[in-house]
Batch of 2 targets.
Target 1
Amino acid sequence: MPDHDSIRPFRWAGDSLILLDQRRLPEEVSEICCTSAAKVAEAIAQMVVRGAPAIGIAGAYGAALAWREAGGDSGQRERLLAQLRAARPTAVNLAWALDRIAALGDVDAGRVEAEANAIAEEDLAANQRMGELGAAYIDAGSGVLTHCNTGSLATGGYGTALGVIRSAWSGGLVARVYADETRPWMQGSRLTAWELLRDGIPVTLLADSAAPLLMRDGAISWVIVGADRITANGDVANKIGTYGLAIAARHHGVRFMVVAPSSTVDMALACGDEIPVEHRDPEELLAIGGKRLAAQGADAWNPVFDVTPAELVDVLVTERGVVEKPSTATMAKLFGGQP
Ligand code: MRU
């Protein structure tokens, strides 16, 4: 295991999927046990497990459970797979993993389980590779800023953007890691800070809205983020707030790196306008930790992802290689048609 990588968000127990309950971190380290595909779909929708690659992996294990539950009933199996697919709409990794399982055809549950294991292992290897590729862009003494959680918790291990930060940290290149709190689910303060500190990497949190000032003060040279879906022209869907960070970074001459495995690339969509953006319950904004803060009667608009146009991305790191200044032409060189 490379340095600074001690956490896994899931465990396959042979007949069930055990998930670290990310809603309760860092206060409580607890797990939930999913013994059915429906329970996995519910866990994905309710954010027990989250992060694009991690929900793809959980979906694949959910499919293994669907195979067991349905036996030879292909209609029942299809219904369970459709339920898993619908659990969250923006991260394409979920549909990608389920398509990969469906492509196996009429196999037994053991074969589906082996494919889910392979998806998880390949994701970890992709992250380690992206860590090396991305860290090569970081100059010694850099301050870096990340958004949301893209670490071991969000993936098969090591992380995407956080994997690059881990590799750059291990190489002695990072002077300081800054992490946005990431309203409203606080993935930055709850999850990124927890996993970095557990792995011995110091982190400084800031309110999401403080990031432009941090850039103006010259404290960072890179913003490094993950992605939930990247379209054929290089547009990037990621956690709400990413678009604003990219605009501020360009204004201040700070470079902007996106790190994502090829399972996040959706060459079937021409541009970001075609990405389904998930909107969640307004209550997630109106209350914090179950305590209502907003004035009674206030409504809330709660898109949980946004789309950063390709022209604001300096470097896209994938395990297949790096795309500098992503565009339809540079993306096609690496991904051709469908990844
Ligand atoms: O709503 P979440 O927590 O699932 O959103 C996660 C993100 O937006 C991550 O940045 C993205 O999935 C990349 S994770 C390697």
Target 2
Amino acid sequence: MTDFPTYPTDPQAVEVQAAADQAVDWALTHGLCMKPALPKATTSAELQQGTGLATHAPFALFPSPFPSDCFQHALTIQPYLNQLFHAIANDHAFLEEHLQHLTHVDDFTARLFRLYLETRPYAKRQPITLAFHRSDYLLHSGSETTETVPQRLALHQVEFNTISVSFSSLGNVVSNLHRYLWDQPTYRHQIQGPASLATRTKDALLPPNDCIQGLPEALGRAWELYGNPQAAILMIVQPGERNIFDQRFIEYALQRDYHVTVLRKTLAEVHDQAAVDPTTYALRIQGHEIAVAYYRSAYSPTDFRTEQDWQARALVEQSKAIKCPNVAYQLAGTKKIQEVLSRAGVLERFVQDPQVRMQIQQCFTGLYPLDQSPEGRQAYQLALAHPERFVMKPQREGGGNNVYGRDIPPVLQSLSEKDQAAYILMDLIQPPELHNVLVHQGKVQRGPVISELGIFGTWLSQGNRVILNKPAGHLLRTKVASSNEGGIAAGFGVIDSPLLI
Ligand code: ADP
Ligand code: MG
Ligand code: MG
């Protein structure tokens, strides 16, 4: 491992403030924006007050160092992971074997699984599959460090997201921001060492990112393949979305490059306005036939506020619209499936090439069931004896759902044996703590931080023909080290980009 660079230690220093001011202006000029949090907004009138207001999305002032070999590894395996999750989503016996029993202990997974079973007979109405994934990783140092960086860092997968992955647009804007700042002498001279920074090219250090194009390209090509130039793309969104600009970039790129209409609708609006043609199975909404239904919602129980919301999801699933993703993909992305994949012999079912298997397995960290199997009971005992080594996860997405370290025993002991099976246990990955300067609403803060790398991936296939399978850019999210999770909207995390060392 080469040396890491160091960044200014005094966030109040004049040159740091000046760089932050310069960065904020650049951010606002280039759409690195979010809607402000309106704490009391609950009614639509209150939400309306947020119209016309925006703030810059929180970002790291300096790109966080990331080992080049780990970055390359994550990029290399992305197409294999895309293929793996396509195979899992199409393996009914596998999904049933490993998810059916969860339906007795987890209402949300039960509901999704029921929807999957009910709509499975209609899947043949649309042989085109479109997926947009993000595989997330932390570096594992194996030792607790602050200023000193260990010699060996390994890439460990945190999770694989198959629905509603975000920040593919704003992540790209932050890569561009860091590349802009790099050329500003007053900024650049604040970064000290290592020697390799002076000898390597800007592109080698700050990899150009193209994640802003990946998703519009995949959506656009799926729309073309659907074969009706009059058809529209439907983005199914959450009401009052603060991260709307991340989504607008996608919409505008589709309009610019494919001249396609993009509709934004909540599940409730889909329920009220959409119908499926009984003969052609086309999904129609307000006079538009929908070629692709793309979800930026429907991943959490709170996205389904009423029975009508579930009916809307079912309507889309039964139609011949291309779904991004379909419910089988959503189930393939559960933490349970991630745990099952780490068991001896399971990856062999999907990945024949031993070299590829090894490359994927190198990123796995310890994952354990918490069910009544001998492995599950062993994990239960281990979690009680050494909770600080683990994180406990339910079948949920979107952050804020996990139980960490010493909080695990009371939670585990409060659950019946049956209900424990709704969770999995995972080894706590210990990333190195680095220092960076974070910018929130124009204010700077320096601190020990931890970075999580995400690699986006696009997949498009028609029957057995694979049309698109590639990595589609990257995202670095950085959080203050003292926070277990780094929600960007919640104020603990920022958008960042990697400085490859
Ligand atoms: P979600 O689907 O809600 O994003 P994650 O599995 O990504 O769930 O967990 C949320 C966050 O918790 C991650 O972004 C990471 O910061 C932290 N986390 C998750 N798993 C681990 C782990 N094994 N070791 C350390 N931190 C973890
Ligand atoms: Mg997730
Ligand atoms: Mg996550």
